[in-house]
Amino acid sequence: MDGTVVRHINPQLLNILEKLDDLSFKITAGFSKVARLKRPRPPMAGIVNRDRKPRLLVHRAMHKVRRKSVEQIVEPCPGIFPLLDMLRNKGVILALVSNGLGKGYGHDVLTTFEMEQYFSVKLFREDIIKSKPNPEGLLRAIGKTCVKLEQDDVIWYVGDRHKDVKAALAAQTHLPCKVQPLAYGINAALAILESGVGPDHIIMNYEDFRPKLEELLHRPPLPSKTGTG
């Protein structure tokens, strides 16, 4: 959400939050690795069925000391509303997956800027066990849409950080369809290039991206290879 749906009025605050989130992930991953050595489990075992909730003491403490309202901290990304309107009108199912807390922040942001209506699924840090770059949040969100995915389906995942691209690519191995990571901004763009995904998956602003996406959605489907001709 931060950096893709809304942007921080003070970008330095976002960088600090992202660094703290990255540190939290590394610490958690370290403990998880030790636990796996003691008790091996299949990869991603029970990833969408676990009920245990993370404690998130650092995240909660940060939001308790916050003194400003959300509209003093963030603002909608330029061009986001025409893009969301276009996707909703085209029948595209939208989900939001954030490493930030929902209670006391994320839900307040969506309510303040009247964005909740656009997303059929909204997952925040307290709703998952492992945060991005782990793909758990993406897989949980997809499962909650109750859409049966087929081989020809395509999932677009827009993120502004290196870990977003890694999460999208990791989710690909657990799904029957294609996952297309889209980088919004420099940080994720570097990850796109490093991963060999291609520069056409880089979005620098929504004003330019929307007409390109609208053109893509207007294209007729490719002819079937097994058609009657």
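That was protein one. Protein two is written in the same sequence-then-structure order:
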Amino acid sequence: MSSKLYFRTIADLAAALDAKQLSSVELTQAVIARTQAVEPRIHAFNSFDEADALAQAAASDARRAAGQSCGPLDGIPIGLKDVIAVTGQPLTASSKMLKDFVSPYDATVTTKLKKAGAVLWGRLNCDEFAMGSSTENSAFGPTGNPWDPTRVPGGSSGGSSAALAAGEAIATLGSDTGGSIRQPAALCGVVGLKPTYGLVSRFGLIAFASSLDQIGPFTRTVEDAAIVLGAIAGHDERDSTSFQAEIPDYRAALTSQRGPWKLGIPKEYFAAGLDPEIATAVEKAIAFYQSQGCEIREVSLPHTQYCLDTYYVIATAEASSNLSRYDGIRYGHRSAVGKDAVDIYAHSRAEGFGPEVKRRIILGTYVLSSGYYDAYYLRAQKVRTLIRQDFLHAFRDVDALLTPTSPMPAFKIGEKADPLALYLCDIYTIGVNLAGLPAISVPCGFTKSGLPIGAQLIGQPWKESNLLAIAHAYERAHDWSAQFPIF
């Protein structure tokens, strides 16, 4: 692990803080200095408040001095994607529509992090309204990948993955609707966890597609992911989709849950279109598990070929509905042009939304429109059920599935102008959201040109403990998480 404070893990830093070898103010100052140094090249943040972060850190130090530490996250700087509400902080969704909006309340995950003593640090860039796979759709400009700032960090939570990889935060939160945590984690060489749908409250998350969205952490290690998940998971009566279940000690499960496990390899995920270097790296991960006594089985998810189509019907339909509230009347951008309410509504949306958001609203409105609902939206929901059944059938025989996270490594900013080419970046991740499953991306190597590669483990619903333990077994036998970009 690096000697630089901003590259150390939550577990390591928490131990140092408890031993009084370090103060939260010192740690936060190091993160702020690092952010100031690299942010001009990376642009991971939409905004940050240095004075507020240092005040939170000083409060953490005071708690520790009084013997009242809140736990392992107390005093740890954690960044939040700019779709998660924090009282008194900007909440823009990286859109002109919300450019000047300040949140009047906290998201549930924000409240939980505050209770855990975390230092909430900055608003992280993303694709506008979380719609994209490269963070190029942000109204505030693209984010660069710390391993090569001329390349994308993935999306939509690209600011979250890039900030962590660059040392601008110790952990971050993102949201995952079709891979928006796992794909950028893979492209930036960090760990990204998408929990089971309903495990983490969505209250205070700006909605993209409500039946698919889920908040989760970006961390340097699987252990850190377990720590953060333990802090943010749990039932919330303000979220009607929140699941009521006892939250286990995810960190303890990393060592208490032991293999060998049965791992399934979906044959549909190793077909044409997968970058050869990524295929080789994931095959080495498979070989590692086999060497540890795990049983490796080829499985089939036959409806995988319909995932992309199904996702872009359901996600755009829900986006069309969710984004109808941005009308230029109640809040958000209001056009100066317009004779009446309808005119203001039309101009405000035309001016406030970017091209990709407009494209998805139009698609979603079309599939929900009279005469097309049954042909598209209803049929997509039926196929979604079949996709979920594929996964559940596979889990009768295996504990988890092992796949590539992304079909390609990070590409150059501006390289993929065709929207469909960008949509294909999520081909290995969207099925998980349609099925409501947990999944994690862990670093598993680098390309010859030095770009990170991620492997995805897909778990059974509500069995994050087992999923994290499987991922941890791989991570502790490799040093990918201990390598950092140099710039």
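The chain has two domains: 5-265+401-482, 304-384. Keep this in mind for the problem set.
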